[in-house]
Design goal:
By secondary structure, this protein is mainly alpha-helical. Helices cover 86% and strands 0% of the residues.
Length: 86
């Protein structure tokens, strides 16, 4: 059976197109994979910052509690004293 040059040409063209698309897909997949890695790193950094912020907020809350307790204590001492008496 003789070979069909048109069929071979079409097959070669389809093969080239397939390979070009495969290469493009591989490049795009690599870009997406790289971007995903960058996003993961940023999320990890944000997670650490949130943890530090949480501990700083806890510390601030403790300071506020101490300050409020001191204010209550000072006001309690002032109860019954003459405001003009010093």
């Amino acid at each position: 059976m003789p070979e069909d040059p048109i069929a071979h040409g079409e097959l070669a063209a389809l093969t080239r197109r397939f390979e070009e698309v495969a290469e493009k897909t591989d490049r795009e997949f690599g870009i997406i994979k790289s971007d995903l890695t960058a996003v993961r790193l940023q999320v990890g950094n944000l997670d650490q910052k949130v943890d530090r912020l949480g501990s700083r907020l806890d510390e601030l809350g403790r300071k506020m509690d101490r300050n409020q307790a001191q204010i209550v204590e000072l006001l309690t001492r002032l109860v019954g004293k003459d405001p003009n008496g010093g």
